């Protein structure tokens, strides 16, 4: 059974810092991995989708990497801003398709 | 239009009430999803519709009844809910339901069952 873990559960950084959020998964037979952002009480916004054949994806200040063999993904946020404050969720999809399996999320707070 | 809309934003209901949640998208997507999210927890999949047919039901109690009247609209009918059903209910859609697709989420309906 696939399990997804995100560490740390919460992170507070000063504005301008570069930071890394971690996601690990127990079964490396994944189809893809997706990073989402969720603001309090709101829906999820898809940030980056990495297919299993890819090593990384970039969008603006965000860079997500995938190491399928070790069961890890990282989300790198450059030059963090207070507007980046949110909960970041990673989710994997198994090779048989099926549902997204989410991690518990990392709650990020960027202080001005 | 790249938006999934959900109504109402908030809903308070008693355990004997019947209510419905509505989700709409006009992106031409043929797969639509209902998720339930408790506070400080990740979303949990409830139902998947693909081409207006129910393709996945994650063993959800029958007091939750989904309906997909057309390719743009997804409803969730609620009846005889329990206080533990209080949560944020999220709707999502994707192009065809394929494994490689991004899912687009709505803002959610926050439900409180008294």
Map the helices and strands.
The complex is a heterodimer of chains A (about 110) and B (about 110).
Chain A: E1 4-7, E2 10-14, E3 19-25, E4 30-38, E5 44-51, E6 56-59, E7 62-67, E8 72-77, E9 86-94, E10 97-102, E11 106-111
Chain B: E1 4-7, E2 10-13, E3 18-25, E4 31-37, E5 44-50, E6 53-57, E7 64-70, E8 73-79, E9 87-94, E10 104-105, E11 109-113
Parallel strand pairs in B: 2-11
Antiparallel strand pairs in B: 1-3, 3-8, 4-5, 4-9, 5-6, 7-8, 9-10, 9-11
What does this structure look like?
The complex is a heterodimer of chains A (112) and B (114). Chain A is an all-beta fold and 112 residues long. Chain A contains no helices and eleven strands. Chain B has strands at 4-7, 10-13, 18-25, 31-37, 44-50, 53-57, 64-70, 73-79, 87-94, 104-105, 109-113. In chain B, β7 (64-70) and β8 (73-79) form a beta hairpin. Chain B starts with a strand and ends with a strand.
Features:
heterodimer, A: 112 residues, mainly beta, 6-stranded mixed beta sheet, 5-stranded antiparallel beta sheet, 11 strands, 62% strand, B: 114 residues, 7-stranded mixed beta sheet, 4-stranded antiparallel beta sheet, 56% strand, globular
Summed over residues and divided by their number, the pLDDT of chain B gives a mean of 93
Backbone shape of chain B: globular
Oligomeric assembly:
heterodimer
Largest sheet of chain B: 7 strands, mixed
Succession of helices and strands of chain B? EEEEEEEEEEE
Strand content of chain A: over 45%
The N- to C-terminal Cα distance of chain B equals 36 Å
Strand fraction of chain B: over 45%
Structural class of chain A: mainly beta
Structure class of chain B = mainly beta
Topology order of chain A in helix (H) and strand (E) letters? EEEEEEEEEEE
General form of chain A: globular
Biggest sheet statistics of chain A = 6 strands, mixed
Question: Helical content of chain B, roughly?
Answer: under 10%
Please count the helical segments of chain B. Answer: 0
Count the strands of chain B?
11
What is the CA-atom radius of gyration of chain A, in angstroms? 13 Å
């Amino acid at each position: 059974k696939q399990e997804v873990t995100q560490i740390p559960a919460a992170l507070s950084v000063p504005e301008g810092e570069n930071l890394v959020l971690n996601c690990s998964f127990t079964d490396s037979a994944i189809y893809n991995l997706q990073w989402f952002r969720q603001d309090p009480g709101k829906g999820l916004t898809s940030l980056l989708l990495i297919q299993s054949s890819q090593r990384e994806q970039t969008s603006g200040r965000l860079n997500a990497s995938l190491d399928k063999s070790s069961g890890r993904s990282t989300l790198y946020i450059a030059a963090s801003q207070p507007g980046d404050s949110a909960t970041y969720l990673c989710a994997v999809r198994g090779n048989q398709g099926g549902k997204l399996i989410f991690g518990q999320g990392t709650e990020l707070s960027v202080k001005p | 239009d790249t938006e999934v809309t959900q109504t109402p934003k908030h809903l308070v209901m008693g355990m004997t009430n019947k209510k419905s949640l509505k989700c709409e998208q006009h992106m031409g997507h043929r797969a639509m999803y209902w998720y339930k999210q408790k506070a400080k927890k990740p979303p949990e999949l409830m139902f998947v519709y693909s081409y207006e047919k129910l393709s996945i039901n994650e063993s959800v109690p029958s007091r939750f009844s989904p309906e997909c009247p057309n390719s743009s609209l997804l409803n969730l009918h609620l009846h005889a809910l329990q206080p533990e059903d209080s949560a944020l209910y999220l709707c999502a859609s994707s192009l065809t339901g394929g494994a490689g697709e991004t899912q687009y989420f709505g803002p959610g309906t926050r439900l409180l069952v008294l």
